[in-house]
Amino acid sequence: MTIRYLLAAIGVVVLAGTAAAQGTAPTSGKRVRRLLIHNATVVDGNGTPASGPKDIVVENNLIADVIPLDPVAMGRGGRGAAQADAVIDATGKYVLPGLINAHAHLQEERGGKPQPIEYELNIWLACGITTIRDVGSDTRRALELRRQSAEGEIAAPRIFVYPMFGRPRNAEEARARVRALKEMGADGIKILGIDRDTMAAMESEAHRLGLRIAHHAGVEETNAWDDINFGTTSIEHWYGIPDAAIEGGVQNFPSSYNYNNETDRFRYAGHLFREANPERLTKVLEGMVKANVAWDPTMDIYEASRDLQRAQTQPWFADYLHPVLEEYFKPNPANHGSYFIGWTSTDEMYWKENYRLWMAALRQFDRLGGLIGMGDDAGFIYQMYGFGLIRGMELHQEAGFHPIKIIQQATGNNAKILGQEERLGRVRAGFAADLIVVNGNPLENLKVLYPSGVDEIRNGKVVHTGGVEWTIKDGIPYHAPTLMARVKEIVAQARKK
Hints:
Layout: H1 3-9, H2 17-21, E1 34-42, E2 51-59, E3 62-68, H3 71-75, E4 86-89, E5 94-97, E6 99-104, E7 109-110, E8 113-114, H4 117-126, E9 129-134, H5 139-150, E10 158-161, H6 171-184, E11 188-192, H7 196-209, E12 212-216, H8 224-230, E13 234-236, H9 240-243, H10 262-269, H11 272-275, H12 278-290, E14 294-296, H13 303-306, H14 308-312, H15 317-320, H16 323-329, H17 345-367, H18 387-398, H19 403-418, E15 435-438, E16 454-458, E17 461-465, E18 468-473, E19 476-479, H20 480-496
Parallel strand pairs: 1-4, 1-5, 6-9, 9-10, 11-12, 12-13, 13-14
Antiparallel strand pairs: 1-2, 2-3, 5-15, 7-8, 15-18, 16-17, 18-19
Helix pairs in contact: 4-20, 6-7, 8-12
């Protein structure tokens, strides 16, 4: 018995339900005044279990209503389905908040060769990513893309721009640089390789001006203790956290080590967590929680270090890997992250252990009450845009997190890191209409989020299913398979050239 017949049997009136379910599907890339997502199972971004069926009403660019259709809710005064100008039938499908990529790069070239921005933007949307935090690209170009996205001129996620800060020579220059970025319209700042005195000055000025800070802490003077003391918003990746917990303060580098030699840099990065003192590491994590420093671990981007062959043979490369990006990935000292020259099974062994310890630290941070986000840092080290974020979700599951929690990390938690938790990252009335409709249950299998889909056995037959069907960003519905067909066409044309 369907839910509609059950409701009728108990005397509940369903308002325009049949008409709504049979409404006209939306046109990809075109906002309608009133969009209905009908009969969906919803996973909110707040860490609660799935619930449904529900109707989600979108008016222009906001979620206007979330309407339970189950008999219990109807008995409490709930309402039936609403009328709409266009309808997405989500029967048997899951609806999530739009995914947020907290560590992304807008890239129109790789290795000095042009790569169309449409390629990257389309994949992000097709993977269900409705928001990105751009942490270091051409700032003026990023600001223009942000404007175009906000005004609906291009098919793109909403964009938060965090320019690379650079290395000012003194505190005065640091404060002036912060003011200049604020005047340009930046949403925040990304710091990398910064000295302690200039970091203190820039963070003080950034807090005064309301700019958030993402810190890629490499092997440098500053580490997680500085983020704790100065009030950094989020630590990117992971180096600075175990680095702050090493006895004596310096990792045991060989005398030949050169940080600018990326094979050296990434080889010995794989030794870092094993050299951290566990008791000191706990104090670092406790300090981060107390100071409200979030952790965006980007677990996907280093996976090639522990399993190079897997990274080089990902199945979506066949149709969707742009030849410019493919060339950039190949081992080449001239390209950042293309460091696999003389990479050994011993290196992979160290990195496997590094991941084990890293995942344990992430679980401990969560138990202590820390805020964990998610980003992919794609466009480097064999990770493709969008696909990398979903792979990161799988790695968080390997780390021991429940899929409900993982979805929260990629939606509601990332919204908090951006300072946007009052309007992004939830399936809730009054929030921005950033939603994804998924062909499958991501709580059962996160792979259904990949736009390439999955194979399943149903009634003894292999059926290809999965993938995001619709990505609604700012109220504009985008048909994900159509976006990926365009990506495939872009790649095929580039390969012909």
